Amino acid sequence: MFVDRIQIDVKAGNGGHGSVAFRREKYVPNGGPAGGDGGKGGDVIIRVNPSLRTLIDFRYKKKHNAQPGGNGEGSNRSGSAGDDLIIGVPPGTIIKNKMNDNIIADLTEIGEEIIIAKGGKGGRGNQHFATSTRQAPRFAEGGEKGDELSLVLELKLLADVGLLGFPNVGKSTFLSVISKAKPKIADYPFTTLVPNLGVVKWKDYASFVVADIPGLIEGANEGAGLGHQFLRHVERTKLLVHILDISGFDGRDPFDDFTKINIELEKHNKKLSKRTQVVALNKADVIENISDLDDLIQKLNDKGFEVFIISAATGEGTDKLLDRIVMLLKEIGEVEPIFDMPEESEKIYRPTFKKEYTVRKENDYFIIEGDLVDKLLNSVNFEDYDSVAYFQRVLRNKGVISDLEDLGIEDGKVVKLSYIEFEYFK
Question: For 65-101, what is each residue's pLDDT tens digit?
Fold first, then answer.
């Protein structure tokens, strides 16, 4: 089964919480704070794995979580850092942010990787909050949450040459003749339901990859037939070989087919339609009307296309076509991707900044929600004066108090943070 587009959810590990602890040594009567720091949460890393060819494994596992950091302990022992989660993908995988469809990375090289979600920082233990006037702090800092996001993984084949053409024009046969690929071949439409790849070694030229793409029909850009499943895989190719059936057996007009497919390419992406393209007139061994062939060649030449007459079944004309393909690949060299890519400095994903909390009024209550609430509740000992003072200072420094005042809070009103309630006094 070939799977080329999948959605997954990833979550980096949360940071471990700092510890509240004190020295308890026999000959140290006034031992100070000794709470260790929490460990950093593990990152989620996506890395190219050359042994993978499809995204099928992600069909059965949609959620991927890195390990959280360990909590701090006494005697200034820090929690262990969470293990990173490494997710393998095939070469040619594009990673998109599901929320806005923006491309985060295009992974093509073996071993290439990206940190897609960063683990949360560990919280500081109470040893960090000791001062000359607060020598025994009874609170520590909570760990930060790791990044969490939904992704779309999209596989685009890494082929040098893409074979264009309507169903049943002989693309699969041509591929089987010029390479060792063994695609299914049969005399009915939509034989090829998934892309087939073949490696071609021709004369003294370095080997190159040819993709036999599923047959395209009119309206593919809007999703008709195999729609974008076809167009997605043509995007990476350097050269397009457009195969037309000139046998006349099915009553189709080859030039009309040629025009329709190029219209679909241009609708999908104008850059794609400008890729170098040559035309192969296939099934020359069974052609019925030679005069029609001359007219077709003239029309294609008038539009600026090189034309080759071949028979994939007998091998007639394939040598000349392959000679021209390798020459064009040398001339074309590397091509620019036709999809928008982020700047190199943006390759490591950084989630868009979002406020750590929200404040709202519900009846006579003022409610504070968000990541900041969880972090504070993991940090504060409400039975300790210094800890409560720290709690109030964080609310003011983060802007929570200012937001409450903007909502019209007055002295004596109740503020809720999860399961905690307190009265507000200015």
Answer: 999 999 999 889 999 999 999 999 988 888 999 888 8
Residue 212 marked ligand-binding: yes
The verdict on whether residue 11 carries a ligand-binding annotation is: no
Q: Was 54 annotated as part of a binding site?
A: no
| pLDDT value at residue 320 | 94
Strands 276-282 and 239-245, bridge-based pairing: parallel
Annotated binding residue at 402?
no
Same domain (yes/no): 277, 321:
yes
The boundaries of the domain holding residue 68 are: 1-155
Question: What mean pLDDT do residues 249-257 have?
Answer: 84
- What are the C-alpha distances in Å from 354 to residues 6, 349, 370? 26, 15, 10
Residue 337 lies in a domain: no
Strands of 217-376, DSSP E: 239-245, 276-282, 307-309, 358-362, 365-369
259 is annotated as contributing to ligand binding: no
Annotation-wise, does 170 bind a ligand?
yes
Query: 213 among the known binding-site residues?
Result: yes
Tell me the pLDDT band of 354, cut-offs 50, 70 and 90: low
